Amino acid sequence: MKKTYRVYQVDSFTRERFTGNPAGVVTNAEGLSDCMMLKIARELNNSETAFLFPGSDGEYDVHVRFFTPLCEVPICGHATIAAHYVRALEENMASRVVIQKTGAGILPVEIRSENGDYTITMTQGEVIVGEPLPLPVQEDILAALGIPKDRHRKDCPIAIASTGHSKVMVGITEENLLHSLKPDLAKLLELSDGIGCNGYYVFTLHPEEKALVHGRMFAPAIGIAEDPVTGNANGPLGAYFITYGLFGNDMEEFSFEAVQGEAIGRKGKILVSVKIAGGNPVQVKITGEAVTVFKTELVL
After folding, report:
1. Which residues contact 47 (CB under 8 A, 6 or more apart)?
2. Which InterPro entries match (predicted)?
3. Cβ-proximal residues to 176 (8 Å cutoff; 6+ apart), any chain
4. What gap in Å lies between CA 144 and CA 292, rounded to an integer?
5. Which residue of 55, 102, 128, 228 pairs with 261 in a disulfide if CB–CB is 3.0 to 4.6 A?
């Protein structure tokens, strides 16, 4: 028997259509097989598409699964923002906390209703920040990204950080260089196999500006040449900052704004908040806005 699925295209980390990070959302995905979800994600051709399934009484309100055009991933920041934005619209929600089940665990999402629209805050998964990668590997990563060694920030060792879906953190000295990068995607793909991490987040720091961070994220191993605005890069970056002491760690919370997507014409902004205990990052939240680009139906 055929079923009609509700499909949305949503731009996350922005209120302006055709900017920020586009995500697909299927709000009534019950009945879709893994194979069919992958086909839908491939057809929509966003970096991720979120599929929403019913919750379980007393455990969680909604189960969200995330697919790139190539594979399922445990969690995705911008697609989480998109999924809960659309769900709030469909259900005309008041401000509340929703519990979602994801591949990175069961986590809260804060829905804030204001002026007839919504802002979404996502609590990310377990915070893990690794030791600096071996120097030869760091040099290979810089070469693959097209970054001269003298443009790498020495106070930013290249290391892997995760809040559910890991990224390699690469700090550089100049924003002009950031926006001119043309990485060797085949080499990054090869390196991903060796280090067990599929994404590379290159960033510059601007403590004199409202937006502390400007960044770009490349993840060819999961079919994403460049992701416009990445929750699963900027969130772990906050934990990385605290672990490596870039802005101190003697506070209870550290927050900053990041801008991403400028180099590919899809600028968006994201707010990151890191809870700190005993000098260590223990919880990361990201906050973003969203806007619906279109809604359609798919009969299968």
Report:
1. 21, 22, 23, 68, 76, 78, 219, 223, 224, 227, 228
2. Phenazine_PhzF-like
3. none
4. 36
5. 228
CB atoms within 10 A of CB 124: 28
Indicate the burial class of 136 (C-beta count within 10 angstroms; 0-12, 13-18, 19 or more): exposed
Beta carbons within 10 angstroms of residue 103's beta carbon: 15
Reference 288, options 236, 231, 238, 237; nearest CA is 231
Catalytic residue among 16, 48, 59, 226: 48
* Contact of 290 with 120, CB cutoff 8 Å: yes
Helix (H, G, I), strand (E, B) or coil at 122: strand
DSSP states of 179-218: HH----HHHHHHHHHHHT---EEEEEE-TTSSEEEEEEEE
**Rounded Cα distance, 145 and 183, in Å:** 4
Cβ contacts of residue 89 below 8 Å, gap of 6+? 118, 292
pLDDT (tens, 9 = 90+) of the chain, 300 residues, equals 899 999 999 999 999 999 999 999 999 999 999 999 999 999 999 999 999 999 999 999 999 999 999 999 999 999 999 999 999 999 999 999 999 999 999 999 999 999 999 999 999 999 999 999 999 999 999 999 999 999 999 999 999 999 999 999 999 999 999 999 999 999 999 999 999 999 999 999 999 999 999 999 999 999 899 999 999 999 999 999 999 999 998 999 999 999 999 999 999 999 999 999 999 999 999 999 999 999 999 999
Asked if 48 is an active-site residue, the reply is yes
Cβ proximity of 237 and 125 under 8 Å: no
Nearest to 43 by CA among 69, 19, 62: 69
